[in-house]
Design goal:
Length: 119
């Protein structure tokens, strides 16, 4: 009995704008979009993210997530150069004592996205 994948669903009231952010800024592909369901699926390099409008079963004032989404990459400096002027920065690229070179940005909803490479 194995788990095969983790596909986070990001709740947002701005699905078209969020699709644009992940496509235009991060290079994701839009795999599926259903306006009636207010749901979308995007992917890049084997990573899948879903977007959904909040449903009536949960309160929603704004996107809230107490963690971050951490993308492991083999070219973190190239990602930094590509993203540093296109997104709101949480922290700039840095090499940390724990052996990772990383930086963090926010998506258009305020979700924290970290990008890191082992050094």
């Amino acid at each position: 009995m194995n788990l095969k994948a983790l596909r986070p669903i990001l709740r947002t009231a701005q699905i078209p704008e969020t699709i644009d952010f992940y496509k235009e800024i991060l290079g994701f592909n839009l795999d599926n979009y259903d306006e009636e369901w207010a749901w979308a699926s995007l992917s890049k390099d084997g990573i899948e993210i879903m977007l959904a409008f909040p449903n009536e079963h949960e309160p929603f004032d704004k996107p809230i997530f107490t963690g971050s989404f951490y993308f492991n990459t083999d070219h973190v400096d190239e990602w930094w150069e590509q993203l540093k002027d296109k997104a709101r920065i949480c922290y700039e690229i840095e090499t940390f004592d724990y052996g990772m070179r990383e930086f963090a940005i926010y998506d258009n909803n305020g979700y924290l996205l970290q990008f890191g490479q082992e050094v």
